[in-house]
Amino acid sequence: MNSHESRYKWVALSNTTLGMLIATINSSIVLISLPAIFNGVGLNPLQPGNVGYLLWMLMGYMLVTAVLVVTLGRLGDIYGRVRIYNLGFAIFAVTSVVLALDPFTGGAGALWLIGWRVVQAVGGAMLMANSAAIITDAFPARQRGTALGINVVAAIAGSFIGLVLGGLLAEWNWRSIFWVNVPIAAVGTVWAYRSLRDNGERRPGRIDWWGNVTFAAGLTMLLAAITYGIQPYGGHPMGWTNPWIIAGLTGGVVLLALFGLIETRVAEPMFPLHLFRIAAFTGGNVASLLGSIARGGLQFMLIIWLQGIWLPLHGYDYEATPLWAGIYLLPLTIGFLAAGPLSGALSDRFGPRRFAAGGLLLMSASFAALLLVPTDFHYGVFAALVFLNGFGGGLFSAPNTSLIMSSVPAHLRGVASGMRATFQNAGMVLSIGVFFSLMVAGLARSLPTALDAGLTAQGVPAGAAHGVSQLPPVGTLFAAFLGYNPIQELLGPQVLGALPAANAAALTDRQFFPDLISGPFHDGLVIVFWLAIVMGVLGAAASLAGPRRRAATGEPDAEEVLDELYGAQPLNPVPVTEPAHR
Predict the structure, then answer these.
(1) pTM of the predicted structure, to 2 decimals
(2) Among 155, 40, 513, 567, CA closest to 313
(3) Where do the H-state alpha helices sit in 498-558?
(4) 458: how many CB neighbours lie within 10 A of its CB?
(5) What DSSP character marks residue 319?
(6) Tens of pLDDT along 546-569?
(7) What is the torsional sign of CA 297, 132, 333, 536?
(8) How far is CA 282 from CA 128, 422, 558, in A?
(9) Which of 156, 220, 454, 492 has the least C-beta neighbours within 10 A?
């Protein structure tokens, strides 16, 4: 490798890492800033009619990236990965300006943000779909794990950095969470267009339109139905008996089954299903999905734990808890940042499987230890455990990505990168529905009784106390998640105003709600963390799938499959003749 090529690979790594960082920061920066955003547009997200806005603000960006990354990775294989990647940076820069200039209030203001966040997610998906493929093209196999480790851990750490950054910016002005993207995205766009080049194998091809449509519609219906299942319906705490939810789940499964059938019949499928005959590719993606669900569930549960219980107990006002929750979760981010590049370098030397599996097992062990921690914990113990969880996640992510990307032929790296991102992003969306549902199920057993007894003890009329206790637990969770005082929101000014001042003050005090919910919350947390433990162990087993000899050398294990599919004929990639600099 000459000096120019050696310099280019680090340029490619730097730019794609910046792209992944900004794309993933924006998946969580809105998450922590939701109270400020809804106050800015003049909406109460906890009112029943506004819950839809809340859910789409939570999941819209992640849902779109999950649906589109495979298609955009395939487009990168056909038209050039750098070309699609650069366009993604440009879209991201423009939509950041449009989002910050939201001219409306109320429902129209929320719809403006949701709609343009969907467009921004298209740009984010372009970055996610092609960054790993660009790095894989630029780096030799002996350095690929290190490079992907830096890129992937920066991406995952971005989702946690966004929590702190969003909290800080939202304290100043809610529009600043979008303005902050503009200079970074503008510099990244110019830098990408001037510096990056397509040096991977590329083939002309056709777009699998029917596959794209059925995949996008099926995955959207399925993930949206799972997410909406956490809303109450017909007197039940959740909506799994809602005909629309049932129709969405059924329709999503049917469309995805039809998609699978289509992919076996078309000459140039969007989702090359034969790649799943490569053990390392299949195992790596299964592990990525399970790890992503567990990690996403951890993120949501820890935020609720901190904002709804621990921070108020330690003297923080509810309005300040979103910011401080992000700050107190910094050990999680530090763990990711510490382990990622290290595990990438070690996996280059010793093989990725043992590090990927070991990382998920360490995550599972930290979940088990968190089960033993009381709801009003000592922060030093909590910080050490979430650091270990983050370290395990970082230990897993880089080797897992290297395992997946090195297992496929060069001309399919774009679509393979998109498929990897689909599993990872779908896991984050699934975690909202899965873990909130489990938490609501745990709370539904014990929270009503605790609420009823606690409220009546403070003089709340029996009818009002019983009515509040029978409200779906998801409202209580959302209130804690958004940094609202749950009892104040649930009782409202009329009930509180009719009580003696001392009782009203006690009910809305920072101590009352955490003491009331800590027991029921821990019941739900046990269910959630046990599922995360199981997912981590199963993901570790999936990471070990496939021939060990290939993993130890870092060589791809796709050749046998390709020989069987295509015979010994050459692949005849189209040479890339674009200039090095534009």
Answers:
(1) 0.78
(2) 513
(3) 501-508, 512-543, 548-553
(4) 17
(5) G
(6) 654 444 444 444 444 444 443 333
(7) positive
(8) 19, 13, 12
(9) 492
